Amino acid sequence: MGVINITPDSFSDGGRFLECDQAEQEADLQLESGADVLDLGAQSTRPGADEVGAEEECRRLLEPLRRVRRRHPSALISVDTFHAAVAEAAVEAGADWINDVSGGQRDPAMLPLMAEVGCPVVLMHSRGDSRTMDQLTDYNDVAIDVLEGLRARSEAAVAAGVRADRIIWDPGLGFAKTQLQNLELLQQLELLTADGVPLLMGPSRKRFIGAVLDEPEPRERIWGTAAVVCRCVQAGVAVVRVHDVKPMVQTVRMAEALW
């Protein structure tokens, strides 16, 4: 899954794809480089980010999405949003997946919408919002607690009418987790894949990699990201969400040959 952030303030590529032409060219490049899914988002979810609201999200997102859809009619496109109104408009504009970092918790209309449209959905484990999540890192056992949280979100989604075979889990690396908790989650990935629900992991360029490598520049964390992607392949993760598509496609292919 290739990341295309149509935002001015995302942590590693904010402002790069705000114009439609830029987003379209990045989509071209990512698909040519081997991306299977494009994940378009117009709300930064980095720690401390300001929330812009559904109307501004739609203003940023919909025209680039329509243009990418027209240019690549067979591509899989995911929309990264926790607003049901944005998700609904994006699906109407051509999105195939809904990727909600709140797991359907931020907007009570989201799970019913997911059920109505019937598309694949990503439910992520998170706590709080961009302003509060760094203070919400108290776990008994982070891997078990995250697994129980994902199971609870699946149960809520199914109760709302979402088909179980449409659900993908994201453990939420970097969302309400410390550096050590992120590493512990990665060390115990088999616990999360054992339920048989496809797992999506988003390690790309994240703070915990920078902390391990003592690398403050997100774009310089490519090799640390590649190491995490190898671990994901080893554990049977279904999807990795990355910024640097071509090198990570090569990383995945090599790791698949090894495991």
What fraction of residues sit in β-strands? 5-15%
Please summarize the sheet with the most strands: 6 strands, parallel
> How many domains make up the 3D coordinates?
1
Q: Give the name of the CATH architecture.
A: Alpha-Beta Barrel
Straight-line N-to-C gap: 20 Å
Helix content percent band: 40-55%
CATH topology: TIM Barrel
Instruction: Write down the CATH class.
Output: Alpha Beta
In which order are the strands of the major sheet placed? 1-2-3-4-5-6
Tell me the series of helices and strands, N- to C-terminal. Answer: EHEHEHEHEHEHHEHHEH
Sum up the overall morphology in one term. Answer: globular
Number of strands: 8
List unreliable stretches of 5+ residues.
Answer: none
Round the mean pLDDT to the nearest integer and report it: 94
Nutshell version of this structure?
This protein has 259 residues and is an alpha/beta fold.
Structure description:
- The protein has one domain (2-202): TIM Barrel.
- The protein is 45% helix and 12% strand.
- The protein is built from 10 helices and 8 strands.
- The strands form 2 sheets. A 6-stranded parallel sheet has the order 1-2-3-4-5-6.
- The model has no long low-confidence stretch (mean pLDDT 94).
Characteristic terms for this protein:
259 residues, globular, six-stranded parallel sheet, alpha/beta, 10 helices, single chain, 8 strands
SSE layout and pairings?
Elements lengths: L1 E4 L14 H13 L4 E5 L12 H18 L4 E5 L3 H10 L3 E4 L9 H8 L3 E4 L17 H18 L7 E4 L8 H9 L1 H5 L6 E2 L5 H7 L8 H14 L3 E2 L4 H14 L1
Parallel strand pairs: 1-2, 2-3, 3-4, 4-5, 5-6, 7-8
Helix pairs in contact: 1-2, 2-3, 3-4, 6-8, 9-10
